[in-house]
Predict the structure.
Amino acid sequence: MLLTSSGSIQPPLLPNVNDDYRSLTRVSNSDLTRLKEEHLGYWSVPSARFIPETTKVFGRAFHQHLLEPETVGTVLNQLLPDLVPGYPILAPKQAQQLDTLTQTIRQDAFCRRYLRLSERERIVLSTEPTTGIACKARLDMVYTSPKRRNALIIDLKTTSARTQAQFLESCYTYDYDRQAAFYVDSLRHADTNEWDSTRQVRFIFIGVMKQRPHRLFAVDATSIPGFIEYGRKKYRFWLRKWREEQETNVSLVPAWSMSA
């Protein structure tokens, strides 16, 4: 079974980038989330399947406004219902909220610096060494120091958390430890070998409150004891499950059909 990156038909925000990424026959962290849901039951884990479509639209619009402002015109497809009949649109209140959240990020000195210096929406292709599985990751922001000794990955989240402690708790609830480990290791084992000489890779989650006062929270995932290590165990477990399912499905194919 080849897990795909999308279970529903949605008009793309970034037609070329998103389509090219989804078409890559590699395993992403999102694929592992769906595999976990299939095995444990959709009701037992926080599931993207139960997130309202308007919330998903808002999340994609937020990332595009912030990380790909040059393509922001395509977001009009979500704001004007005549362009995409029947598709959920951002209400005026959501559009205002979107502007507020993006401005909150841009006004923060740390975020502003790395929005300027980082590669945004960087696609990294890698091969996980313990399973040999080809993987893919799309990083919100990745900064590599001039001599490539250090790298910093920043992942942006909108959050309902109202305190730093609640945001940290959500990092465990939603398997962000697995995401952080998957992304850090994607750089370490990139097929291009461009980070082979990098000594340190840091991963920071930036969360922005969806409600007022729209505070920012930061979690340095690589500084929390055991966070990355536990996340690594998680993603390798589900990669093995993914490989087992592929091998099982291949073994079920009749020999005559394979030779036809």
Notes: The first strand starts at residue 119 and ends at 127. The chain has one domain: 15-248. The chain has a mean pLDDT of 82.
